[in-house]
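Render Tryptophan--tRNA ligase in 3D.
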Amino acid sequence: MTDQRMLTGDRPTGKLHLGHYVGSLANRVKLQHQYETFLIIADLHMLTTKNTREDIAQISTNARDMVLDELAAGIDPERSTFYLQSAIPEVSELNTLFQNLVTVPRLERVPSLKDMARDAHKEEMPYGLLGYPVLQAADILCVKSHVVPVGKDNHAHVEVTREIARRFNYLYGDVFPVPDLVESDVPTLVGTDGQGKMSKSIGNVIYLSDSEDEVRKKVAGMYTDPNRVRADIPGTVEGNPVFVYHDVFNDNLAEVEDLKDRYRAGKVGDVEVKDKLAAATNRYLDPMRERRARFAEQSGLVDEIIVEGTERTRREVQQVVFDVRKAMGLTSAYNQLRRKAERARKSRDTLQS
Protein backbone atom coordinates (compact mmCIF):
# COMPACT_ATOMS: atom_id res chain seq x y z
CA MET A 1 0.00 0.00 0.00
CA THR A 2 1.29 3.47 -0.86
CA ASP A 3 1.02 6.60 1.25
CA GLN A 4 -1.68 7.92 -1.10
CA ARG A 5 -5.32 7.98 -0.05
CA MET A 6 -8.71 7.14 -1.51
CA LEU A 7 -12.04 8.63 -0.40
CA THR A 8 -15.43 7.39 -1.48
CA GLY A 9 -18.77 6.41 0.04
CA ASP A 10 -22.54 6.64 -0.06
CA ARG A 11 -25.50 8.31 1.59
CA PRO A 12 -27.17 6.15 4.28
CA THR A 13 -30.54 5.94 2.57
CA GLY A 14 -30.84 2.15 2.55
CA LYS A 15 -29.08 -1.00 1.46
CA LEU A 16 -26.68 -1.05 -1.51
CA HIS A 17 -27.64 -2.64 -4.82
CA LEU A 18 -25.98 -4.03 -7.95
CA GLY A 19 -25.86 -0.55 -9.48
CA HIS A 20 -23.75 0.64 -6.56
CA TYR A 21 -21.52 -2.39 -6.93
CA VAL A 22 -20.69 -2.01 -10.63
CA GLY A 23 -20.70 1.80 -10.47
CA SER A 24 -18.21 2.25 -7.64
CA LEU A 25 -18.03 -0.51 -5.06
CA ALA A 26 -16.14 -2.99 -7.23
CA ASN A 27 -13.46 -0.36 -7.77
CA ARG A 28 -13.25 0.30 -4.05
CA VAL A 29 -12.63 -3.37 -3.36
CA LYS A 30 -9.85 -3.45 -5.95
CA LEU A 31 -8.25 -0.13 -5.03
CA GLN A 32 -8.22 -0.69 -1.24
CA HIS A 33 -5.03 -2.70 -1.75
CA GLN A 34 -3.32 0.25 -3.45
CA TYR A 35 -4.49 3.16 -1.29
CA GLU A 36 -5.17 4.05 2.31
CA THR A 37 -8.96 3.97 2.13
CA PHE A 38 -11.57 6.21 3.77
CA LEU A 39 -15.24 5.32 3.31
CA ILE A 40 -17.73 8.03 4.18
CA ILE A 41 -21.25 7.44 5.47
CA ALA A 42 -22.54 10.69 3.99
CA ASP A 43 -25.51 11.53 6.20
CA LEU A 44 -25.13 15.31 5.74
CA HIS A 45 -25.50 14.76 2.00
CA MET A 46 -28.60 12.71 2.69
CA LEU A 47 -30.22 15.76 4.29
CA THR A 48 -30.26 17.57 0.94
CA THR A 49 -33.13 15.36 -0.22
CA LYS A 50 -34.23 13.34 2.85
CA ASN A 51 -34.38 15.42 6.01
CA THR A 52 -37.53 14.53 7.94
CA ARG A 53 -37.23 13.33 11.53
CA GLU A 54 -38.17 9.87 10.27
CA ASP A 55 -35.35 9.96 7.69
CA ILE A 56 -32.83 11.06 10.30
CA ALA A 57 -34.00 8.41 12.76
CA GLN A 58 -33.02 5.75 10.20
CA ILE A 59 -29.41 6.91 9.81
CA SER A 60 -27.85 4.48 12.29
CA THR A 61 -29.78 1.48 10.93
CA ASN A 62 -29.02 2.39 7.33
CA ALA A 63 -25.37 3.03 8.19
CA ARG A 64 -25.05 -0.48 9.64
CA ASP A 65 -26.69 -2.01 6.56
CA MET A 66 -24.50 0.01 4.23
CA VAL A 67 -21.29 -0.96 5.98
CA LEU A 68 -22.38 -4.60 6.06
CA ASP A 69 -22.97 -4.46 2.31
CA GLU A 70 -19.50 -3.01 1.75
CA LEU A 71 -17.89 -5.65 3.95
CA ALA A 72 -19.90 -8.30 2.11
CA ALA A 73 -18.66 -6.97 -1.21
CA GLY A 74 -15.07 -7.44 -0.10
CA ILE A 75 -13.99 -4.29 1.74
CA ASP A 76 -11.43 -5.27 4.38
CA PRO A 77 -12.04 -3.45 7.70
CA GLU A 78 -8.34 -3.84 8.49
CA ARG A 79 -7.44 -1.83 5.39
CA SER A 80 -10.31 0.67 5.29
CA THR A 81 -11.68 3.36 7.61
CA PHE A 82 -15.43 3.90 7.77
CA TYR A 83 -16.73 7.13 9.30
CA LEU A 84 -19.97 9.02 9.89
CA GLN A 85 -19.85 12.42 8.20
CA SER A 86 -22.05 14.34 10.66
CA ALA A 87 -19.85 13.27 13.61
CA ILE A 88 -16.95 15.34 12.23
CA PRO A 89 -17.96 19.01 12.54
CA GLU A 90 -14.65 20.17 11.05
CA VAL A 91 -15.93 18.99 7.66
CA SER A 92 -18.63 21.65 7.86
CA GLU A 93 -15.96 24.28 8.56
CA LEU A 94 -14.09 23.25 5.42
CA ASN A 95 -17.35 23.39 3.50
CA THR A 96 -17.82 26.99 4.65
CA LEU A 97 -14.30 27.98 3.62
CA PHE A 98 -14.61 26.29 0.22
CA GLN A 99 -17.93 27.96 -0.61
CA ASN A 100 -16.09 31.13 -1.57
CA LEU A 101 -13.87 29.34 -4.09
CA VAL A 102 -16.66 28.45 -6.53
CA THR A 103 -19.46 30.44 -8.15
CA VAL A 104 -23.20 29.81 -8.27
CA PRO A 105 -23.23 29.60 -12.11
CA ARG A 106 -20.51 26.93 -11.92
CA LEU A 107 -22.59 24.84 -9.54
CA GLU A 108 -25.71 25.32 -11.66
CA ARG A 109 -23.86 23.66 -14.54
CA VAL A 110 -23.50 20.39 -12.58
CA PRO A 111 -26.06 18.25 -14.46
CA SER A 112 -26.85 15.66 -11.79
CA LEU A 113 -28.16 18.20 -9.25
CA LYS A 114 -31.35 18.84 -11.20
CA ASP A 115 -31.83 15.08 -11.58
CA MET A 116 -31.41 14.63 -7.82
CA ALA A 117 -33.97 17.35 -7.12
CA ARG A 118 -36.40 15.78 -9.55
CA ASP A 119 -35.96 12.28 -8.13
CA ALA A 120 -36.57 13.70 -4.64
CA HIS A 121 -39.75 15.44 -5.91
CA LYS A 122 -38.36 18.89 -5.10
CA GLU A 123 -40.10 21.65 -7.06
CA GLU A 124 -37.27 24.03 -6.20
CA MET A 125 -33.65 23.19 -5.47
CA PRO A 126 -32.62 23.58 -1.81
CA TYR A 127 -29.54 25.68 -1.10
CA GLY A 128 -27.85 22.60 0.37
CA LEU A 129 -28.40 20.60 -2.81
CA LEU A 130 -26.91 23.35 -4.96
CA GLY A 131 -23.89 23.25 -2.67
CA TYR A 132 -23.71 19.44 -2.68
CA PRO A 133 -20.49 19.40 -4.77
CA VAL A 134 -18.82 21.87 -2.38
CA LEU A 135 -19.56 19.69 0.64
CA GLN A 136 -18.37 16.74 -1.40
CA ALA A 137 -15.12 18.62 -2.04
CA ALA A 138 -14.78 19.08 1.73
CA ASP A 139 -15.29 15.32 2.18
CA ILE A 140 -12.65 14.43 -0.39
CA LEU A 141 -10.08 17.00 0.63
CA CYS A 142 -10.54 16.72 4.41
CA VAL A 143 -8.42 13.57 4.34
CA LYS A 144 -6.27 14.82 1.43
CA SER A 145 -7.52 12.08 -0.86
CA HIS A 146 -5.60 11.40 -4.07
CA VAL A 147 -8.20 9.30 -5.90
CA VAL A 148 -11.99 9.09 -5.93
CA PRO A 149 -13.73 6.06 -7.47
CA VAL A 150 -17.25 7.16 -8.38
CA GLY A 151 -20.13 6.34 -10.66
CA LYS A 152 -20.96 8.35 -13.76
CA ASP A 153 -23.35 10.66 -11.90
CA ASN A 154 -20.56 12.02 -9.74
CA HIS A 155 -17.98 12.76 -12.43
CA ALA A 156 -18.96 16.44 -12.57
CA HIS A 157 -18.91 16.65 -8.76
CA VAL A 158 -15.31 15.43 -8.60
CA GLU A 159 -14.32 17.96 -11.24
CA VAL A 160 -15.63 20.71 -8.94
CA THR A 161 -13.42 19.27 -6.19
CA ARG A 162 -10.42 19.39 -8.48
CA GLU A 163 -11.14 23.01 -9.32
CA ILE A 164 -11.51 23.95 -5.64
CA ALA A 165 -8.25 22.20 -4.75
CA ARG A 166 -6.39 24.01 -7.52
CA ARG A 167 -7.97 27.35 -6.58
CA PHE A 168 -7.09 26.94 -2.88
CA ASN A 169 -3.51 25.95 -3.66
CA TYR A 170 -3.13 28.92 -6.01
CA LEU A 171 -4.41 31.41 -3.44
CA TYR A 172 -2.87 30.04 -0.24
CA GLY A 173 -0.13 27.56 -1.08
CA ASP A 174 0.02 23.83 -1.76
CA VAL A 175 -2.11 22.17 0.90
CA PHE A 176 -4.22 19.72 -1.11
CA PRO A 177 -3.51 17.07 -3.71
CA VAL A 178 -5.68 17.45 -6.83
CA PRO A 179 -7.59 14.15 -6.72
CA ASP A 180 -7.97 11.90 -9.73
CA LEU A 181 -11.29 10.37 -10.71
CA VAL A 182 -11.34 6.59 -11.19
CA GLU A 183 -14.10 5.41 -13.50
CA SER A 184 -15.83 2.05 -13.23
CA ASP A 185 -15.92 -0.58 -15.98
CA VAL A 186 -19.75 -0.37 -16.05
CA PRO A 187 -20.53 3.35 -15.50
CA THR A 188 -24.31 2.96 -15.16
CA LEU A 189 -26.48 -0.12 -14.69
CA VAL A 190 -29.99 0.03 -16.10
CA GLY A 191 -32.77 -0.76 -13.63
CA THR A 192 -34.89 -3.90 -13.78
CA ASP A 193 -37.72 -1.85 -15.32
CA GLY A 194 -35.55 -0.76 -18.23
CA GLN A 195 -36.60 2.86 -17.67
CA GLY A 196 -33.34 4.34 -16.40
CA LYS A 197 -30.49 3.64 -14.02
CA MET A 198 -30.94 1.33 -11.06
CA SER A 199 -32.21 3.54 -8.21
CA LYS A 200 -33.58 2.94 -4.71
CA SER A 201 -35.99 5.86 -5.07
CA ILE A 202 -37.52 4.27 -8.17
CA GLY A 203 -37.46 0.74 -6.77
CA ASN A 204 -35.98 -0.94 -9.86
CA VAL A 205 -33.14 -2.54 -7.92
CA ILE A 206 -31.59 -5.84 -6.96
CA TYR A 207 -29.96 -5.44 -3.56
CA LEU A 208 -26.65 -7.07 -2.68
CA SER A 209 -28.44 -8.57 0.33
CA ASP A 210 -31.44 -9.97 -1.59
CA SER A 211 -32.15 -13.66 -1.05
CA GLU A 212 -32.05 -16.17 -3.90
CA ASP A 213 -35.86 -16.14 -4.10
CA GLU A 214 -35.98 -12.33 -4.18
CA VAL A 215 -33.46 -12.28 -7.02
CA ARG A 216 -35.45 -14.84 -9.01
CA LYS A 217 -38.68 -12.86 -8.57
CA LYS A 218 -37.06 -9.59 -9.61
CA VAL A 219 -35.34 -11.12 -12.63
CA ALA A 220 -38.58 -12.82 -13.69
CA GLY A 221 -40.27 -9.42 -13.77
CA MET A 222 -37.49 -7.66 -15.68
CA TYR A 223 -38.20 -5.52 -18.71
CA THR A 224 -37.12 -7.08 -22.00
CA ASP A 225 -37.74 -6.59 -25.76
CA PRO A 226 -41.31 -5.16 -25.88
CA ASN A 227 -41.77 -6.22 -29.52
CA ARG A 228 -41.21 -9.88 -28.76
CA VAL A 229 -44.59 -11.27 -27.77
CA ARG A 230 -43.72 -14.92 -28.57
CA ALA A 231 -40.59 -17.03 -28.19
CA ASP A 232 -40.43 -17.76 -31.95
CA ILE A 233 -40.12 -14.04 -32.83
CA PRO A 234 -36.50 -12.85 -33.31
CA GLY A 235 -35.55 -10.50 -30.48
CA THR A 236 -33.17 -7.61 -29.93
CA VAL A 237 -30.19 -8.22 -27.68
CA GLU A 238 -28.52 -4.80 -27.85
CA GLY A 239 -29.81 -2.56 -25.04
CA ASN A 240 -32.03 -5.34 -23.68
CA PRO A 241 -31.69 -5.13 -19.88
CA VAL A 242 -31.73 -8.90 -19.46
CA PHE A 243 -28.71 -9.27 -21.73
CA VAL A 244 -27.00 -6.22 -20.23
CA TYR A 245 -27.14 -8.09 -16.92
CA HIS A 246 -25.96 -11.33 -18.53
CA ASP A 247 -22.89 -9.51 -19.89
CA VAL A 248 -22.07 -8.06 -16.46
CA PHE A 249 -22.99 -10.85 -14.06
CA ASN A 250 -22.95 -14.18 -15.92
CA ASP A 251 -19.56 -15.86 -15.64
CA ASN A 252 -20.52 -18.51 -18.23
CA LEU A 253 -19.56 -16.66 -21.42
CA ALA A 254 -20.43 -19.59 -23.69
CA GLU A 255 -23.93 -19.71 -22.21
CA VAL A 256 -24.39 -15.98 -22.78
CA GLU A 257 -23.35 -16.19 -26.43
CA ASP A 258 -25.63 -19.19 -27.00
CA LEU A 259 -28.59 -17.35 -25.47
CA LYS A 260 -27.91 -14.29 -27.61
CA ASP A 261 -27.71 -16.32 -30.81
CA ARG A 262 -30.95 -18.19 -30.08
CA TYR A 263 -32.70 -15.00 -28.95
CA ARG A 264 -31.86 -13.23 -32.19
CA ALA A 265 -33.07 -16.25 -34.13
CA GLY A 266 -36.33 -16.63 -32.19
CA LYS A 267 -35.33 -19.98 -30.74
CA VAL A 268 -35.43 -19.30 -27.01
CA GLY A 269 -38.08 -17.86 -24.73
CA ASP A 270 -37.71 -15.07 -22.19
CA VAL A 271 -38.39 -17.52 -19.36
CA GLU A 272 -35.25 -19.56 -20.09
CA VAL A 273 -33.15 -16.43 -20.59
CA LYS A 274 -34.32 -15.00 -17.27
CA ASP A 275 -33.99 -18.31 -15.40
CA LYS A 276 -30.35 -18.52 -16.42
CA LEU A 277 -29.81 -14.88 -15.54
CA ALA A 278 -31.29 -15.44 -12.07
CA ALA A 279 -29.00 -18.43 -11.55
CA ALA A 280 -25.96 -16.43 -12.72
CA THR A 281 -26.83 -13.43 -10.56
CA ASN A 282 -27.25 -15.64 -7.51
CA ARG A 283 -23.84 -17.23 -8.20
CA TYR A 284 -22.44 -13.71 -8.34
CA LEU A 285 -24.04 -12.72 -5.04
CA ASP A 286 -23.45 -15.94 -3.10
CA PRO A 287 -19.96 -15.01 -1.82
CA MET A 288 -21.32 -11.64 -0.68
CA ARG A 289 -24.18 -13.29 1.19
CA GLU A 290 -21.72 -15.56 2.98
CA ARG A 291 -19.45 -12.68 4.02
CA ARG A 292 -22.42 -10.56 5.08
CA ALA A 293 -23.75 -13.31 7.33
CA ARG A 294 -20.32 -13.80 8.89
CA PHE A 295 -19.98 -10.12 9.82
CA ALA A 296 -23.64 -9.73 10.84
CA GLU A 297 -23.49 -12.54 13.39
CA GLN A 298 -20.81 -10.66 15.38
CA SER A 299 -23.01 -8.42 17.50
CA GLY A 300 -21.83 -4.81 17.72
CA LEU A 301 -18.91 -5.33 15.34
CA VAL A 302 -20.17 -2.96 12.67
CA ASP A 303 -20.89 -0.28 15.29
CA GLU A 304 -17.32 -0.60 16.57
CA ILE A 305 -15.95 -0.31 13.03
CA ILE A 306 -17.92 2.90 12.42
CA VAL A 307 -17.15 4.52 15.78
CA GLU A 308 -13.43 3.72 15.77
CA GLY A 309 -13.15 4.85 12.16
CA THR A 310 -14.98 8.09 12.88
CA GLU A 311 -12.73 8.92 15.82
CA ARG A 312 -9.61 8.17 13.80
CA THR A 313 -10.86 10.24 10.83
CA ARG A 314 -11.76 13.20 13.03
CA ARG A 315 -8.19 13.40 14.28
CA GLU A 316 -6.97 13.44 10.69
CA VAL A 317 -9.48 16.12 9.67
CA GLN A 318 -8.65 18.34 12.64
CA GLN A 319 -5.05 18.44 11.47
CA VAL A 320 -6.09 19.27 7.91
CA VAL A 321 -8.34 22.10 9.11
CA PHE A 322 -5.44 23.45 11.17
CA ASP A 323 -3.27 23.38 8.02
CA VAL A 324 -5.99 25.15 6.04
CA ARG A 325 -6.53 27.89 8.61
CA LYS A 326 -2.78 28.43 8.90
CA ALA A 327 -2.35 28.62 5.11
CA MET A 328 -5.20 31.12 4.81
CA GLY A 329 -3.93 33.27 7.67
CA LEU A 330 -7.04 32.77 9.78
CA THR A 331 -5.07 31.37 12.69
CA SER A 332 -2.67 34.30 12.79
CA ALA A 333 -5.53 36.79 12.52
CA TYR A 334 -7.12 35.51 15.71
CA ASN A 335 -3.77 35.10 17.45
CA GLN A 336 -2.97 38.76 16.78
CA LEU A 337 -6.28 39.81 18.32
CA ARG A 338 -5.80 37.47 21.27
CA ARG A 339 -2.26 38.69 22.00
CA LYS A 340 -3.31 42.33 21.87
CA ALA A 341 -6.29 41.60 24.12
CA GLU A 342 -4.00 39.88 26.63
CA ARG A 343 -1.59 42.85 26.62
CA ALA A 344 -4.52 45.23 27.18
CA ARG A 345 -5.78 43.16 30.13
CA LYS A 346 -2.31 43.02 31.69
CA SER A 347 -1.93 46.78 31.24
CA ARG A 348 -5.24 47.47 32.99
CA ASP A 349 -4.37 45.04 35.79
CA THR A 350 -1.05 46.82 36.31
CA LEU A 351 -2.71 50.26 36.48
CA GLN A 352 -5.36 49.03 38.87
CA SER A 353 -2.80 47.47 41.19
